[in-house]
Amino acid sequence: MPPTPLLSPRRQRPTGMGPVLALWVCLALGAADGKGPAPSPLAGGQPFAVVWNIPTGRCQHRFGVGLPLADYGIVENRGGHFAGQNITIFYKNKFGLYPYISPGGVVHNGGIPQRVPLRAHLARAAEDIRLLLQPAFRGLAVVDWEEWRPLWAQNWGAKRIYRAASEQWARERHRGPQLARRAFERAAQTLMEQTLLLGRSLCPGGLWGFYRFPDCFNGNWAKVANYTGRCRPAEARRNNRLGWLWAASAALYPSIYLPLALPPALRRRYVHHRLREALRVAARGAAGRLPVVAYSRLSYRRSPRFLEPADLEHTIGESAALGAAGVVLWGDMSYSRSASCASLRRYLVSTLGPYVANVTAAARACSLQRCHGHGRCVRRQPRDLGSLLHLATSPWLPFRCHCYRGWAGQDCAQRECTGGSRFSLCRAGSTLPAALMQPPGPPPQGYF
């Protein structure tokens, strides 16, 4: 049997019931998509944020190559550090007692979730969190555990070793393969769920979640005649089974890395459906919709070649248009060599930076002009792949408002019902002309 959980998911207390008519009015004036309010902005009043998660601090310190990220509105940690106040990743060998089996067959921390001492894992993980984060941390807290997946059926290919190890564990207890599957899934759930809840208890303001969840498994373009990019129905059903994970998460971090081998004509569809699945799952958060922050790269997967402008549209642009809260740009130490720093700066100044500045400014302008600054612009028709949030494409006709919590109506100009059994609707004073003619007032509070 899996260990007894040490932490319990937070439950919202039910509020008192108000008048039926007032409740009906509240529902009628709710978020435009009918699926709850939009997650709050990550960075102040910026509806769409681009976050730098590349260890390039050495470019300035060792080689004198500065990267003017702030000039383009790109969010980074202070000092260019890989882990900091805005984003921190917890990797398998530096966070708790994560069980895995290395490619050489070396077993770490028992190898499978069933063999991990949960209390010892949580104690170690708590030490690791306190070492890196302050209790007031309000950034992105990403757990990167990729060696196995929590559902038995998704451990295929090289991950079959975890099935075999679980079956061996069951044989040691004179039980059959069905116990192996059930015990693996229960222990995996307990380990992942309790790890997130621990992080949220120690740093409640952080956006805790697992990298690459949810996944879509739509990388089968070479195996089908007419590739659509859609997620496999079986994988969507499996994502539905992971409701416990979405309930414990504070954010979702799907991957939209582009394989270089993926034909250019198929890349937007590939990313589009991965994002659509994450946004579908986001509605299953315990306390409302979860922010979706997609992980992208500056280069193609397993390639040093930087993304072409069209592929920046397919990744960053598509994320903004569909209503994601932001994108994380990830990279490894290869970007911090002397020659890499110089080429990275050229790419940033010539291509990446101007595009990011355009998209983030467009998202901000659309929010102010269409949503009174109280909502995020999203595509009216998600499948309209040609509609992107670019400054040159105003007046934003292909987009609608998805209002933040506390605001309602087609243009997010009405106060939402609040206060338990009391309902209050008020028309917000329209300051749109002034907002467009002069700098806007204090933005809504974000995470950064």
Summarize the structure.
By secondary structure, the protein is of the alpha/beta class. 35% of the residues lie in helices and 10% in strands. Helix 3 (118-132) packs parallel to helix 5, helix 4 crosses helix 5 (177-202) and helix 8 (264-282) runs parallel beside helix 9 (309-322).
Structural account:
The chain is an alpha/beta fold and 448 residues long. 35% of the residues lie in helices and 10% in strands. It has eleven helices and twelve strands. The strands form five sheets. It has a three-stranded parallel sheet with strand order 1-8-7, covered by helices on one side. The chain has a three-stranded parallel sheet with strand order 2-5-6, covered by helices on one side. It has a two-stranded antiparallel ribbon with strand order 3-4. Strand 11 (407-408) and strand 12 form a beta hairpin. Helix 8 packs parallel to helix 9. It is globular and about 70 Å long. The model is unreliable at 1-34 and 419-443 (pLDDT under 50).
Topology of this protein?
Elements: H1 20-28, E1 49-53, H2 57-63, E2 87-91, E3 100-101, E4 107-108, H3 118-132, E5 140-144, H4 160-172, H5 177-202, E6 207-210, H6 233-241, H7 243-248, H8 264-282, E7 293-297, H9 309-322, E8 326-330, H10 338-371, E9 375-379, E10 399-403, E11 407-408, E12 414-415, H11 432-437
Parallel strand pairs: 1-8, 2-5, 5-6, 7-8
Antiparallel strand pairs: 3-4, 9-10, 11-12
Helix pairs in contact: 3-5, 4-5, 8-9, 9-10
